[in-house]
């Protein structure tokens, strides 16, 4: 679901996000004077929307907005003692909402994955199972369920508004799993925290970590450029293009090791190199039971659980061996995202491909059938898509015009569109409340049009970044 990502992964930067902070006309361009906004919607039982309460939002609600400069603070939420700097995944201070204790830990993270959106390698957003984050200029903010220590704030207390993770700085990117969190710094170091029972933290133990703990013990751990997190497993890519995975396997092969490494009853609690993957990789995505990697040339590889065709190979056989997806060997892919039992990929020319389980309409193929191999989402074929995300059983896409489309499971209002059925089989346009206040000091209000630049999808909630004109 979230996790998912995340994940927006790109071996060769796509036209839109490559230029997010430039003046180019390609895609959705941002500049230093633009006001950026963080929106959230869907289920909110443990504060994962960051709005200070537990109320479900059927349509996107504004969490915060700010100008894209280094001194800006959010202007549309009540600021107490802590300012927030923001640009996409995790970043805000504690805005003074009531936090609630919840020390229960879910028994399984099976349907979660890490969904993350990065903007110009400087900021981003990510969704986990029941927690969220944003980061900017090296700082990280988290909110939502705190069980297992997944917020990294030194306790298992839940937070209902974005809260600064002051113990971690110089952050480049964050990935959120079902019960754990992962961060990589600009210097290439990896930190993990949260529930350790599945080995997903990579420290060689199964204890929870209430605060970020650095991975140590291997030379490559200070040379990481990209990370991903699934419900119970984690992946990292080094600057040389090597892929390392660790966490829970359960016999489906999602770690990509087979018998080449020894596990503890299906759990690998320290990182292991995926040696069967004999190509350099630039990006990785973790699903509920599978993993996918992109090469710098845009070739997509898959491995792991395949009970619902999520590997895209045309059959339902689990396979721990990484292999290129046959039908995509001549297609240049620039982004991949994995859900609970489905996946999506974005081509270099802006087309969306989906495959796997379709029982909730999450494939966008005008039906509820599953797809054995990647197929184009025809409803979006006349639009150039620049960003995609898979939730647990739903999917989202952002076009170069800044439009946000969602489809799939909607039982918890995760599609952000009031009035839809529980299973939306075609992409539907998400609308925003554009009556935002530009100048908080004067109270002047103007009609604004939100233009989305990135989206991430959790199990039952979503986040996006947008700017208004």
TrEMBL record:
PROSITE patterns, sorted: RCC1_2 (PS00626), RCC1_3 (PS50012)
InterPro entries noted in UniProt: RCC1-like_dom, RCC1/BLIP-II, Reg_chr_condens, Ub_ligase/GEF_domain
UniProtKB keywords: Repeat
Pfam families xref list: RCC1 (PF00415), WD40_RLD (PF25390)
RCC1-like domain ranges (all copies): 197-446
Origin superkingdom: Eukaryota
Residue windows of the RCC repeats: 36-92, 138-187, 188-240, 241-297, 298-349, 350-401, 402-468
Name of the protein this chain belongs to: RCC1-like domain-containing protein
Organism expressing this protein natively: Riccia sorocarpa
Lineage of the species this protein comes from: Eukaryota, Viridiplantae, Streptophyta, Embryophyta, Marchantiophyta
């Amino acid at each position: 679901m979230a996790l998912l990502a995340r994940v927006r992964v790109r071996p060769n930067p796509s036209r839109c996000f490559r230029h997010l902070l430039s003046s180019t006309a390609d895609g959705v361009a941002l500049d230093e004077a633009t006001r950026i906004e963080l929106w959230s919607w869907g289920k909110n039982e443990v504060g994962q929307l960051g709005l200070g309460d537990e109320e479900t939002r059927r349509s996107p609600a504004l969490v915060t907005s700010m100008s894209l400069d280094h001194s800006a603070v959010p202007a549309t939420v009540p600021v107490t003692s802590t300012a927030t700097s923001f640009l996409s995944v995790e970043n805000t201070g504690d805005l003074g909402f009531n936090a609630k204790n919840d020390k229960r830990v879910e028994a399984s993270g099976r349907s979660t994955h890490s969904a993350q959106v990065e903007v110009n390698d400087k900021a981003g957003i990510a969704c986990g199972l029941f927690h969220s984050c944003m980061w900017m200029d090296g700082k990280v903010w988290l909110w939502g369920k705190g069980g297992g220590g997944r917020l990294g704030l030194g306790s298992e207390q839940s937070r209902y508004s974005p809260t600064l993770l002051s113990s971690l700085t110089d952050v480049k990117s964050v990935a959120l799993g079902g019960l754990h969190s992962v961060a990589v710094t600009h210097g290439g170091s990896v930190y993990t925290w949260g529930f350790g029972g599945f080995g997903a933290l990579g420290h060689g133990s199964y204890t929870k970590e209430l605060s970020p703990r650095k991975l140590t013990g291997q030379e490559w751990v200070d040379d990481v450029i990209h990370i991903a997190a699934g419900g119970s497993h984690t992946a990292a890519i080094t600057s040389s293009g090597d892929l390392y995975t660790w966490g829970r396997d359960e016999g489906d092969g999602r770690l990509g090791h087979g018998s080449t490494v020894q596990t503890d009853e299906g759990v690998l609690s320290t990182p292991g190199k995926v040696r069967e993957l004999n190509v350099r990789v630039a990006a990785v995505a973790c699903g509920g039971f599978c993993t996918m990697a992109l090469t710098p040339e845009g070739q997509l590889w898959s491995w792991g659980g395949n009970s619902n065709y999520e590997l895209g190979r045309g059959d339902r056989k689990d396979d721990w061996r990484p292999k290129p997806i046959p039908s995509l060997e001549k297609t240049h892919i620039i982004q991949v995202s994995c859900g609970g039992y489905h996946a999506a990929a974005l081509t270099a020319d802006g087309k969306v491909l989906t495959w796997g389980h379709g029982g909730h309409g999450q494939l966008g193929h005008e039906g509820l059938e599953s797809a054995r191999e990647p197929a184009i989402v025809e409803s979006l074929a006349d639009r150039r898509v620049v960003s995609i995300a898979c939730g647990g059983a739903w999917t989202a896409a952002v076009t170069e015009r800044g439009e946000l489309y969602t489809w799939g499971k909607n039982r918890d209002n995760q599609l952000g569109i009031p009035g839809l059925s529980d299973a939306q089989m075609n992409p539907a346009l998400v609308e925003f409340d554009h009556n935002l206040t530009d100048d908080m000091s004067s109270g002047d209000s103007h009609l604004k049009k939100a233009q989305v630049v990135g989206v991430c999808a959790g199990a039952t909630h979503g986040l996006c970044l947008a700017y208004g004109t």
